Each structure stands twice: as C-alpha cells, then as structure tokens.
Amino acid sequence: MKKYIIVEGKGDKFFFEGLLEHLNIPPVIIIKSLEDDLGTEPATPKSRGLSKDMLIKALKSCVETCSNGNNEIMIGILIDADYVGKGEGEMEGGVEKRIALINSVIEIVTQINPKFSTLCSDITHFSTLEVELPTFEKISIKVGCHLTNIEDCGNLDTLQMAIADKPNAHIANCLTAWKDCYEKKLASGVIQKGYEIKKLEGEYEKLWVWFCQNYDKSIEVIRDEFEKQWVDFYKKYDNLKHNDRGDSVINTSLETIMLGRKNTKGVFVPPTREKLFNLDSPQPDFQKLCSFLKCFS
C-alpha cells in the first residue's frame, strides 16, 4: 500500500521526515509538500504555503498514483491550524475552519465527503473511501487529517517553541520579556504608531525597529510572527557557535537540523534534532500529532 502525508511547505516536510525517523517509523511514507508541485518554479509569497487549489492538486497527484493493480492507498493531510481570524473565507484559520477545508478538498477530488469533525489521532478516526477513477478503476483510499497546533491554534513554529529546550533558550527567551515589555508600553500609550526611532545596528536592534514599525496599541502583537522570530533566534543564537552563524541559512534549516547534511568535504554531519527539540515531549498536542504519524507505521 502506498502511503502519503501531505504537508504545507518544505520546512514542514523536513521536520516531519526527521520526526518519523526519530519515531522509528519505516521510511516507506512519502511526505509531499504543496511546494513540490511548483516544479522548477521558485516559491513566491503567493505560491508558498497553504491554498485550496494547491491542496487539491497535491491530493489528486497522490490519488492518481493508484494504477496497474495498486488499488489501495493511505493519505494523511497535515496542515497548520493557524489562528482564528487569520485568512478569509475558506482559508480562515482555526481547527473548525481547517477541518471544513480538508473535507471540502477531499470531496472535490473523490466525490465523497469524509465528514471529519475532529482530528485523527488514531487509525479508527481515519475514513475509508471507495473511489472510481476516470479510468473506471476502483480504488480504496484510507484518509485521515491532522493539524499542526498547540491548544487548537498555531503552526510549525508554535510546535517547535512548545518542544524546544527552553531552559537553555537564553537568547530566544529574552524576546518574550521584550515583547511583554513592549506590549505594556503600547497599552499605556507611551509608544504610539509611527513612533520615530533611530535606526540601530545589530540583530536585536533591527528586530526592535521592526516591532516599533509594525505594532500599535490598537493591534495585538501578531503571535505567529513573534513565534517565527523566537524560533529563528533559538536555532541561530542558542544553538550555533559564533563561527557557524555566518552560514546560518544552511545550519539553521530544518533539513540540516532534522535530517543532517554533507559538509564541504563531503562528510555527513548528523542531524541535531534531539539537541534542539524534545521529540519525546509529553506535551499533549505533540503526542496527538505523533499518534497520527504512527498510524502510518
């Protein structure tokens, strides 16, 4: 039986491939990112990430691999929960909206609505669909869905924050105190929108300028943007030696962290995933995600 898990981006793909290795799940599962179908086209802000059309295209390409007697397939759809109020219409975030999106996409591709109402954290939650292809060949699709989330919202950055080695995230944790301080000053009116500040040099100062330019007292700090900054600081400053930061794009990529890479001498450098993340974390939502992945073993 062919097995596929559809995820949003290439970072998600590398993270879950590494997590599957850690969980000792046999490497027979194909992790397919929505960006895979871009071919040689570079990902742009418009094409990167989640869209209904790209999700339909990815699901169709998995279903179409069933032919010549290979009439059974297992597919998992694993996308971000995101946040309620982020996005519009069918693309709005939140668990309920995202499950409805998945049901709609599956129905468009298979003509059958699995009517998922909750996340699949057990094989009994999966739905088996008997589908007839345009070639009149009948196939059986076992399909399930899950969302990357912590407490019903968020994305891969939210998950990484939850399972990070926080006691040793000294520099990244400074951002939390910084954000709290900034929010208090916004609420008190000390800082106004368009607050004029001198452009400063350095990573912290540049980020500080960015906060001042993008947030005002009428808008809450966009949580997912902050989480992305926290994870970037955690990977670069809390886990890389000073000499390795110059090549931080490679050294902090999820492909390098989760799967390892060959260095300039052709020597394989093992992944550092267990150093950065507690992949055995008892965090409830992370455990549900692992249970979903184990359904493919």
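Second entry:
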Amino acid sequence: MNFVKEFFLQTGILFFFSTFLFADFTIGLYDVKTSTDIVNAKEAGFNCVQSYISSCETINILAEEAKKNKVKLVVYPDKIMYDKKYVKKVQSYPIRAWYLFDEPDVCNLAKEKLISMNENTKKSYPDTDTVFVIGQGFTEIPYYDVADILMVDWYPVPHLPLESFGENVALAKQGLVMAGKDTKELWAVVQIFDWKEHKQYRKDTDRVGRFPKKEEIRFMSYDAIFNGATGLFYFNYYSNNKPLPEAKPKEWANVVEVIQEMSFVAEIIDNGKKIENPVEIEEPLKAKSFEYGGIKYTFIINPTSQRQTLPSLFFQPQFDVMYEKTTNLRKMLRKSKNNFQQYKVFAFRYE
C-alpha cells in the first residue's frame, strides 16, 4: 500500500459509490509514450495506461515498465501479434485489453470490419479482453455487442453543457442493454485537455477551448459512474507534445488530486456495501450511500447548470463534509437556500 493510500485510510478520508460492485476498477491514462510516463502515471494513482504507439519494440519497453509498476496496459494488437520475435513475450505482458479501434463511429467504420478485428485478436489471445472507444453514447451503427469492453469519450469543455458527458455515458449504457450486453464493462473517458490544441471544424485563428477546471474533472468522474461507467480513463497525458507535468504543472496537479480521490473510490467499489440514503433526495439531485469499515458515506451530485438546495439533514454535526477546503462550509451552506452549486459533488462521512 503506498503512503498516500495509507494516509487516507488512517484519517478515514475514504468514500465510494456505485450501483454495482466491480473488481479491479480501472482508472486509466491515455497516450503514454515512455517508461517515465508509466512511472508518473503510477505515482499519480492510475492503475492502467493506454498508448497509441504500435511499434513492437516500444510496446515491449512499455510492458516491462508497466509490469515493474504493477500497472495494466491497453495497446494496439495489430503488429505485435504477428511478430514472431514477441509472440512468447506477449504472454507475460500485463495487458488489460487490446485496443481495437479509435472512434469507429466518427470514422464510419463498417461494423463487419470491427467484428473481424475483434475475432482475429481473440484467436491469438482468447483470454485477454478487447476494447474500443466510441465518440458519443449513441451511434448510428450499433457497435455495442462487439468486443469485451466498450469505451465512450465525450469532451464538453467549454462548448457543451457539462452534464452532456454523463448523458452520453448513459446512452452508451442503454446501447449495451438493448444489445443484450448489460453486464459488459463500460469505461468513460474524461477530458483533461484543451480543445485549442486540437483540430476543429472552424478556422485555426478562431479555435475554442481551455483546460477543464479541477471541479469539472471531478464532477465528470462522479457523473460517469452515476450513469453506469464501470471504469474511468482520462484523455490525454500529452499537451503540445509535452507530458502534462511539464507542459501544464498546475493542471496536472489538479488531475492528480482527482485521480487519487477516485482511486479510493475504486478501492471501496471492490469492498463497499450499498445502503439507503439517510434522507430522501429530490431530483434533479442524485445520491448514493454506502457503508465500509463501519463508516457510512453519502455522495450527492448536482448534474445541472442551476443551483439546487442541499437537504438540511446534512448540516447536522454528525455529517463530516469531505474534500472541502473551506473550514466554515457548514455555516455558508446554511445561509443560502440555493446552496448546492451547479455541477457540484458533496461527499459526507458519518456513523
């Protein structure tokens, strides 16, 4: 157990929520390229990394480093499964899933081609999961029954409502249910990049974008699980060809705070017991409550652009507000009826 996790366990700053319990909840980082990237990802709290690099030699290097750091890997199988030099080595790689394709819906890829990719990969590695990502929750071509895991990416900051992220996760979950794959894993990809750094459907001189704020990254992470995600990935680790710790150190520090928080969520998802909420929660607010280690936790989100009202029960002293730096927060909440900020998450701990 690392020192950060041990600290949080000793101080009781733990929380969890989920409709279902999933072992080995995946918290992944997109677009690693070097061994150092994997070390940084592990220190930040990620337990899985993805790379777009298809070079067999590089994948081998990344796999060895991932193994050292007890981190899982998501990479393309295209080249390495046909390279005789690496056939035996691959068996020892810590592969979480083989990455089949990036956004087939955006690329208008025929479903038959995706099925063929999946079948070819499973012939070589029948016991290893396969995964691909769609660029929106609903796709005209129903890819939902292909592969072992589905990912969905939707990057709303700053041009779309923040709640549209969770809505697209919910649409992807609905697609799985309609395809008879309701137990299939669903990983949501959270935005940690500035749209200005990417090609847009507008003139380069008129790009729109900014890096998401910590509160937005945190909200999207919670909102994804409330809407059915069973794992989280964060896109992406590089900004203008530099790793985030170097390119945007303040933004990376915010990401790390969220990831360490979510890594404790993952631990509790594996061990927690769902319980009734301590008070009725009225829509549009959403809440889930759990018990773990003799302590109860309630997590409430406001998935709207409007301020809402937090139930007064949570003003009582037995409810400890977690992950808030304002010491007189309880007093501030009492002063206002509409005290629940838009896209806000509250985590409460009580006995």
